[in-house]
Amino acid sequence: MEESPSSRLLGLFAGQRLTPTQRRIAQSLVEHAPRAGYLSSGEIAELAGVSQPSVTRFATAVGYDGYPALRDRIRELIRTDGRAETPDEARRNEWQRAVAAEHDNLTSLSGFLADPEPVLAAARVLADSRPLPVVGLRAGGPIAEYFGYFAAKVLPDVRVCTAGGSVLADRLEQAQAAGATALLTFVLPRYPVEALAALRAARAGGLRVVTITDGPMSPAAEESDLVLPAPVGAQLVFDLHSAPMVLAMVLLQAICDARPTETQARLESFERSANRRGLFAG
């Protein structure tokens, strides 16, 4: 399967020791991969929320003489086939381009899943945790709730928390006291400070932290034991989270596969209860 532009740019920056500011620049280039090679250093600076000189210093830090040389390399990576934009592609409106970019993000996720071991390793860690705390703050909240809704049908004790501060600290402390050994978190741009603090506190308390975030350059990656990357769409006013949502369900499938007998028994019990109470119309 051909790599997406986002995947190629991730490979360009992988293994680099970057400052937080430089990680923001790299992440902005990855998020805007289809057009990153045609943006000026000023436009990149604006997207990343940094100064223009910071972009120049970033280019030097990753091994190029300046931003123009880095931009040339990015162009090579995002157009490896040398193909110009087709007339149909050129006529796309901004909504169609956003959807097309999500297709690229899902292609990138599919490439990551070609090696199942990272997801399987995370599933083994999470499947053994009783209870299983799940945390998502701000943009990560809806995905944490979505995961938790379905996970509760196959796991005996799933505790979703979408509130930060002392409430989150209380929930994590209570979960650990009840026997939790792991924590699943969803940390998405713009990376809530409270979420990062919670990851540090959880690891300090002995929990193994599995994080779904938008890429290996996310600040959440440094605070986690296992990281599962899923790119986030940034073409519209607010981010699109198609890939993180898909990855959440893939992870839950892997958790189910880790304990098939228990999963099947709990699903059958839920179906009997749902039928008895007439929960669904179909």
Automatic annotation (TrEMBL):
One of its GO terms (biological process) is carbohydrate derivative metabolic process. InterPro entries: Homeodomain-like_sf (IPR009057), HTH_RpiR (IPR000281), RpiR-like (IPR047640), SIS_dom_sf (IPR046348), WH-like_DNA-bd_sf (IPR036388). PROSITE patterns: HTH_RPIR. Residues 5-81 form the HTH rpiR-type domain. Coiled coil: none annotated. Pfam families: HTH_6. It comes from the Bacteria. GO terms for molecular function: carbohydrate derivative binding; DNA binding; DNA-binding transcription factor activity. PANTHER family: GLUCOKINASE (PTHR30514), RPIR-FAMILY TRANSCRIPTIONAL REGULATOR (PTHR30514:SF18). This is Transcriptional regulator. It comes from Actinocatenispora rupis.
